Every structure is written in structure tokens, then in C-alpha cells.
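Example 349.
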Amino acid sequence: MNTLQRSKLCLIVLLAALFTGVGCRNSHEAAPSVIWRFAIEETPGSVQDAYAQKFKELIESRTKGEVEVTVYPYGTLGTSDHVTELLAMGTVQFAMASPGHLGKLIPEVQALLLHFLLTDDETINNRALNDPELREFMNQFYEAKGFELLSIYSEGWMVWTTRKPIRSPEDFEGVKIRVMTSPLLLAAYAAYGASPTPLPYGEVYSALQLNMIDAQVNPVFAIEEMSFYEVVDYMIFAKHAPFVSTAVANKEFMESLTAEHRLIVLETIEELRPYILDIQLQFNRERLDRIRERKPTLKIISELTPEERSVFRARSLEVRQTYIDMTGESGKQTLAAIDATLERIAQNN
Ligand code: 6CS
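Predicted structure in complex with 6CS:
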């Protein structure tokens, strides 16, 4: 049996367990009346895992044992695309759905992938991403697919990990860079002259190791937890975009909740907004130190000059038209909503 067949078999066994409610509980333990399933796109110890574990802790204590939350880390239910399918079916009730993959299903969310759309100031970006009006606007696209958008948040700056220094689009010429699977990302890196290759998260390390790709892009904590730094020579902070994720629930499930449980979920999500920002800052800081310790030969370009960034920015602007071509009027409205949010936040500063 090859790896793909084995992973499919595991998925079928797991799904059977989910549907039949077979679990690992001891027979003498009192079962909670309900189990809520939360699938994440990252491994234990990640930013998404911290979010889901805190959600579990708060929900279980606030529902006083009526609800148990089970967290499914990356791989246990397949790729990000599998997780999104399971959420749409209601097999899992909560999931992380990053625009980097979700863009295939909801093209409008790809606005959150556009380079240089947000600012180079993390505080302003985080306020914009957490803005309730923007979230409500984006929710219409999620609702149309049977989801409820609970949270939009940043997991930290995207960082290029490569075999050569990159300070200009010319340096990207011919570089095979792995991107997530949303189609807009192909245009984003083609605009710099690179050769983007979409791959699931779990295949990136071996693709780098086998020289099938030359580079990838992810926040620092992910570069550490997935060991990508082992198989590259450079880390480059261009501050072109943060890694944005969204926490999502199945809409029908949310509508089926009692008023009390719905309130508990919404209050918990509110509490998680500042929590996850602190966590991502902490994880990205600590894990950069860890990478430095483990691989002192890794060259870190911790920033590009304003002139270097402006060359990338200029190249990235053509991709906004690609986004509008993919999404039409709703995409134009999405860009306008993000711009208006950023402007409002800048004025209130
Ligand atoms: O690169 C990816 O595919 C993944 N990166 C992160 C940091 N989270 C989930 C996503 O699937």
C-alpha cells in the first residue's frame, strides 16, 4: 500500500469513527452529552493548535461538561481541502480555513493573500483583520457556502525561505517557489518572475529536500515546526503580507445551537481575538531564536530596504487586476471594504 492509499484508508477509518461516535473514552467515564469537532490545518504546538486548545478549554468549562471539544490536527483528517469539505458536510463543526487554500472555494477571500494590500505595521493590520464590519462583510461569502465566519486573524509575517538571497524580482527569476493551493498565489509569484508550484502543506519539506522546489513561504513558527529551515539557506523578511487564517463554523450547526450555547461560542471567540495575537507574536519570536540556535549557518535577511520593498510592491499591483478578473464586482467591493477599514483605522490612530 503506498502513502496515498494509506492516508486515504486512515481518513476512511477516522470518518467512520466520527460518524459512529466510536472514541477512546473509558467505559466508566461519564460521556458529555455532545462532542464538537474542531479541525485545524497545522500540527500540535502551532498557532492554530493554541487557538483550538484554548477554545476547547473555555468551551468545556463554560458548558460545565455538557460539551467536549475534540481537536483534529493537520493530517488526521487529510489536507486543508479535506477539512473544508468535512466542515461543509457538518462532520466537523469548527475548522481553520486559510484563504491560501480556501480561495479555490471562495475566490473573494483571496484579497487577504494580495501582497502589499495591508500595511507594514502589524498593529494596524491586526486591528483591520479583527474589525467587526469587515468580518460581517466577508461573512456573506462564507454563508453562501454553508459556513459562519467567526474570526479573521494573522499568524505573523510570511517569510521567504530560499536557497539564494532575494532582494529584487530579478532574484526570483526561475525560482520554483511552493505556494498554497489558491490560484491567486500563482499570479502573485509569477508577477515577480518566479515559478510558483502549489502543494499541500505536508508535502513541502520533502519537495525542498528532493530539489523539486527551491523555496517556500510561511510564518516563522511554521518554518520551525515543519523543519523547513533545515533544507534551505536563507530566510527573508519582506513584510509583503501576513499569513491570514479564518476560524469558521458550520452554519447549520451554529443555527441548531441553543441560545445559551451560541452565546458561549461567540463570547469564547471574542476572548480568543487578543489571545491569539499574543500567541502568534510569542511563537514567532521564540521560534526564530530556536531556528538560529539549531542552524547558525542559516542566513537571515531580517528586512528589505524601503526601496527594495517598493520594487516588489510595484510588481504586485498587477495582481489586483487578476483578483478582480477572478471575482468580478464582489471582489471590487471586497477590496474597497478592506481599504475603507484600513483608512478608518488610520484616521482613529
Ligand atoms: O502553508 C500552508 O499550507 C499552511 N501554513 C500555515 C502556517 N498554516 C496552514 C496552512 O495550510
